[in-house]
Request: fold
Amino acid sequence: MKLPSIVDSLIEKNESKIVFLILDGLGGLPMEGEGGTELQVAKKPNLDELTARSICGLLDPLSPGLTPGSGPAHFALFGYDPFQYNIGRGILEAAGIDFPITPRDVLARINYATIDRKGIIVDRRAGRIDTKENERICKKLQENIHIPNVEIMVEPVKEHRAVLVLRGDNLFGDIEDTDPQREGHPPLKPRAMDHESEATARLVEDFVKQAQEALADEKKANTVLLRGFSKHRGYPSMKKRYGLNAFSIATYPMYRGITRLLGFTVHMGANTIEDEFKALKENYAQYDFFYLHIKQTDSRGEDGDFQGKVNVIESVDKLIPIITSLNPDCLVVTGDHSTPAKLKAHSWHPLPVLLYSNFCRPDEVKKFDEISCIHGGLGRMLTVHLMTVALSNAGRLAKFGA
Amino acid sequence: MKLPSIVDSLIEKNESKIVFLILDGLGGLPMEGEGGTELQVAKKPNLDELTARSICGLLDPLSPGLTPGSGPAHFALFGYDPFQYNIGRGILEAAGIDFPITPRDVLARINYATIDRKGIIVDRRAGRIDTKENERICKKLQENIHIPNVEIMVEPVKEHRAVLVLRGDNLFGDIEDTDPQREGHPPLKPRAMDHESEATARLVEDFVKQAQEALADEKKANTVLLRGFSKHRGYPSMKKRYGLNAFSIATYPMYRGITRLLGFTVHMGANTIEDEFKALKENYAQYDFFYLHIKQTDSRGEDGDFQGKVNVIESVDKLIPIITSLNPDCLVVTGDHSTPAKLKAHSWHPLPVLLYSNFCRPDEVKKFDEISCIHGGLGRMLTVHLMTVALSNAGRLAKFGA
Reply:
């Protein structure tokens, strides 16, 4: 039996509450002239006070040295093997528009593009058509394309980006991208990577042909490039694995979508960090696991905006008392991965974590940052183990073996 | 997909340079009256200065508590699973004489030995005949032994030790040792450990018979004992796995041989540590991964010569500016395993590592030794992950998952 199944087999139910506060891209790097990492520079008295009562450490989201995408990093946070459950771009895009994915769906990302008369791609982004145009074109495709026994959905995202959903029986998603990733070439054929995906690949070929006919009179978006084909795999839910009624609070749709795949009840309508904390408080009685996702730490990191990321951390710190006054049985504060402003991108660096419960064993760490947490009692740990530690701290795991 | 394949699938190429400075047997133990470990006692201002700018930690070469041989310890350093790629003694000996091994070879180590008239071993080392004698006997065997469709090579090593190479098609190396490891017994029959090695085992039996006939008139070396049969497995190269043009600098042939198996270009002719650093400098433009191996730390450890090992560390420290002035994108200083003078042998103790790059996250460690590095930001890590961390620090790994 593999470790995740062992954990699942030990689950015991109780009335405890677990809160995961996830600051996206939390880990940082010292930047020239700033005097430390973003977390070291930020004034965060509430988080530091909590740190002193908690056990701390550093998390490797996937494995030392690997930089994760948001999908695998989040699966690891919830105790799902991030390599086994690596979800494709298609599913992630669909999650990102709150599209209700079902296990009968194969999904892909669409980029609208411009081809010339010979079928050569001259603009991979169709002149970045605006979202209104995108919506009109998606509707046009949806009305004009018909494939027997398969429901076709074409959902707009933003600018030139959309999502293709094929819904039906016996569809499979191991299909190569049709996007050649450069201009001056024709789109590629959708080729199946395994035997069982061959029939689906032929349906996709038919889709592309019909799409091109339907878009023949368009000036800019006259073809589709498809990427990241993926099949919904029917992920075991948090309820099924851990017996948890899980609640998800995020301002960005992609994170709502990921948690929806795992059976969370998803809160809608939070637009600000304050909204998110309010939603936690208002729904605290009804659920027993809470995921509260802060996107802005990652966004400012991606922008290379060191001080902006510091400011987000300080804003979140001010709201910490809202959580602590709820007195959760187990409170975890961490991120999904590092996004140092210095790198303007996700990175491989481990990131700090704190775990508070009445039964944690506090260490000597007094400040919540990447350097202080080296000395924490959790040591350096793979993120996938975090959920197990949280469950035990909440009294929800029986012992293994006699 | 297993982790090494995942790493390989994320490789991106760029112009960066990675240097691995490997002090063999680097890790030590405090010895009575010496005031610390070899690294703690050594004066090494350059390494300590580098440490202050680096991220540090402790490496377990294989798994906590396991003492590695040189083969698996080196495979782990280069990111190859040391259990999957454990190479036999035969290959290692052949590597150690710069013998050009091919994938058609089965290799074994030969010990020349003395048997009496009843075929009982009376001296397992044939009176430690000198290397000249060894060369004469190897030549004699090579001239007198003929096996259809198989090329036989008998290569002298040192004193009573040689290498047997069987080259041909469909040869396999899962064959038990013929050396009973004690005197007073006859040599054992070469027994196949699996079905596919049976034909090769019979060829080996024929080889032993012919060898005994050819050596019947020898006073000392009148038989051969065979150990560590191994088949060359066709290891994936550093170029193929990581896209790296790798360059190997070592004074000892065995380390050149190991890297040759992995497709490194091997520098020949370095006899001193100074030669090695000079070779690094002179070849720096042509390659992008450099392995510089210092043997003497291990040798002095094996001798139980604490002060000698300290002296080697101090000598290497003086040459560190030659590397840092090249300004590599990622510089790693560590060893393959511990060889404490106190133990006069390889040991299981984890050993210190430092990694410098412009994107590392420096920790608070200021001295490069076994005790200080406990507090490093890399924590305690398996050596096999080191290459992944180095590749990311050199900007050569894409992120995993969307």
